[in-house]
Structures are given as structure tokens and as C-alpha cells.
Amino acid sequence: MLTWINSPPSGGDRYLFVDRDGVINVDDDAYIKTVDDYGFYAEALEALAWLKARRVGVIVISNQSGLNRGIIAWDDFWAIHESMVRGIREAGGDLLAAYYCPHRPDEGCSCRKPAPGMILAACNTYPITPETTYMIGDRTSDLLAAENAGCRGVLLDRSADGTELAPFEGADGSFDRFPGLLEAVHSIFSD
Ligand SMILES: [Zn+2]
């Protein structure tokens, strides 16, 4: 598991888990391999700025098996990460932390979603109550990881934008579904 921890936040006690590819940026079946492959969703940047204004600690939980598959170079991976953080900050948002799983499915690790390892690691680092914390993602594996960690899963369904929703199976169906990150966070943090 790869962990990036930001400077401690100031005063907030609310947290949100988000997937990266397909949630913050446009996903690519051929993997996000370089900074040039990385394209933000404008509404996601807006959502992250909105969350920062409300002192919600946003934690990225992302499978990046392209690393151990040898498809994504390590230098490029961290360059993408740094570029993402910079872009989010320029738009007025921030991240509290990011957890990445570099493993291939056949490695049988405990961090690759749908395993809850990354979420549980974050819950050990921060005073997070899983039962009242949401995990937003665009795949079944995100909802299952949320379930397995005892969190509340939220499905981002961008199919209205022309993004094909990944085949969906296994999650228990008791999750909310939103067409974008901004709508999702407005609903979750409505107060
Ligand atoms: Zn892993």
C-alpha cells in the first residue's frame, strides 16, 4: 500500500473517501500512465473546493495495478499524484491523504479494492468512524470496499455524460447513486 499524508487539517472532524479515476479525473481503460493522460472533471474540482470550505477531510482510495503490471512507471505515477494535488489546490480544494494499491489482482493483497485495507488504514491514521463515513466510487469494487470496511458506499454514475458504467454486480444495492461528485457531496454534507 502506498500512502501520501498531507499536513494535518485544521479543525475539521468530517471525512470522505473518494476513488480517483472516474471520480476526480476521467478514467482510461488503457490506464492513466502519464501526467498528460490525466484530465480533471471540472465539477469534481468544484466539489473538492466546496468540501475544503466545509473542512471535510478528503481521502483518495485508489487501485493502481498498472504499477505492478509494469504499465505505469513509478516516477510517472508520483508525478501524476503531485500534479493532481497541485491542480486541486489551484482550484481551491485539497486532499487530506491518498492511499494507493500498486498490486495486481493475482498478488492477493489486502489493499486492492474490494478489500477494505486502504480504508481501514486511513481509519487507523485519522479519527474516522466508518459507520458514518462515505466512500464514493464509480465501480462495484468501490461499493464492496465500502461495505467491507463498514462504510457507506455511494455510486457515481456518469453514464449521462456518455461514460459507460462498469459492469455491476455483488454490492447489496442499498447505496445512493449520483451523476456527479458535486451532487453527491451536496447530498452527503447537506447541513
Ligand atoms: Zn494491494
From TrEMBL:
Transmembrane segments: none
Location of the active site: D19 (nucleophile), D21 (proton donor)
Pfam family, one: Hydrolase_like
Entry keyword set: Carbohydrate metabolism, Cytoplasm, Hydrolase, Magnesium, Metal-binding, Zinc
Sequence positions that bind Zn(2+): C101, H103, C109, C111
PANTHER family, alphabetized: D-GLYCERO-BETA-D-MANNO-HEPTOSE-1,7-BISPHOSPHATE 7-PHOSPHATASE
Protein name listed in UniProt: D,D-heptose 1,7-bisphosphate phosphatase
Organism in which the protein naturally occurs: Syntrophobacter fumaroxidans (strain DSM 10017 / MPOB)
